[in-house]
Amino acid sequence: MSHPNPQTMGQQFGRRSWAEPWKIKMVEPLRMISRDERARALAEAGYNTFLLRSDDVYIDLLTDSGTSAMSDRQWAGMLLGDEAYAGSRNFYHLEEAIQHYYGYRYVVPTHQGRGAEHLISQAAIRRGQFVPGNMYFTTTRLHQELAGGIFADVIIDEAHDPSSLHPFKGNIDLGKLEALIRREGAEKIAYVSLAGTVNMAGGQPVSMANVRELRALCDRYGVRLFLDATRMVENAFFIQEREPGYAETPIATIVKEFCGYTDGAWMSAKKDNLVNIGGWLAVNDEQLFEELRNLVVVFEGLHTYGGLAGRDLEAMAIGIGESMHDDHVRARIGQVRYLGELLTDWAIPIVQPVGGHAVFLDARRFYAHLPQAQFPAQVLAAELYLDSGIRSMERGIASAGRDPATGDHYFPKLELTRLTIPRRVYTQAHMDVVAEAVKAVYDARECTHGLRMVYEPKYLRFFQARFERL
Ligand code: PLI
Prior knowledge:
39% of the residues lie in helices and 12% in strands. It has 470 residues and is an alpha/beta fold. It has two domains: 17-64 and 326-469, Aspartate Aminotransferase, domain 1; 72-323, Type I PLP-dependent aspartate aminotransferase-like (Major domain) (Aspartate Aminotransferase, domain 2, 3-Layer(aba) Sandwich).
């Protein structure tokens, strides 16, 4: 199949600029503390940007999770919260929105994505089974492992190469997957765990052709296929842009076709769905649904609220509809790409092509003199904060954690620092300021020292680990 070059894809936006399909009605002041104060804050946070106070941050690109600006319609919906313990009308609105846009039959709300990951892992994995996926995500893999599953990475090799221009670096390598199924036997495969887009690979998409073939392969062996739909809307944008036959297809139609190849999905609604808190799980199999609906009562709350208030369910139902608008997605990804293009023009090493939710700095090339064991991506996040008050996140060896079987560090090929763009929050001028700050840190790269970890929590260590300068 021939694909357009993703690097020149910005041209599809045409000769005229895109602009956000909204205007700003309410503002929240930003403040930059002094360099001395930032140095103190950073040391107190153990050089971990997760441990900074948000009041000490100027532009916050830690995550796109729960950081979106809600629309006036979503805020209006919050006032229509039906806070009944059982059978809240807002649950039915959410259920209808998920059935309408994602196409799944049965819906279970959860407080956020990892609540849904917990339930699906407990219900669908038997101890010792494999869970093949297109690269790992931190919380996803941990819940699979806590349920006794063994994660197996079956993403295409290009995903591990930050300079590969493959247009669908999130694709599953069907050969790798089939080899695993044949080696272990289909009964040893809990399900295929497919994410669209792939966060840890740089927000890279999966093609429609890939999920279609994946469905056929799963059917051949009787293996289930579940989707992490957290950024599926953004994945749909890339299909529309890059995959032959989809240029005129609306985002909502693409999302529904894609989901139609899967048996169910879990969702962190804090991303695509434009809410500050929320998640859901949706499946087509009635028996599995019964089990999930029972489990949710144990861990999250009754099956019509799943740990959320009625008003949160309403904001999510409205957010789902808004997230599917083509002009919204185009402006959202357009802004991410704008930042990526500025950095590319200055020859700063980033993951190419620029993905959906973030620009990922390639810390391996950025700090070529630092070995991976000195946490170059963590160093870069710390230095960027020190220079400019901009908060980013490590996505390298600290995030990868340890192999539960051997206790050794995983040494991921990708050692990245993520500049994650919240939806509908920052302006193009903020992106300019961010790019200039990254350039300043890049220019000073040669005199930068590494870090060592001095405190390591047992689970998801990157959130709470502490470091010291070497
Ligand atoms: O943060 P949660 O629990 O709502 O969702 C977990 C989660 C699941 N899947 C994927 C692909 C994610 O990106 C994800 C959370 N991501 C975060 C918090 C992030 O900063 O990327």
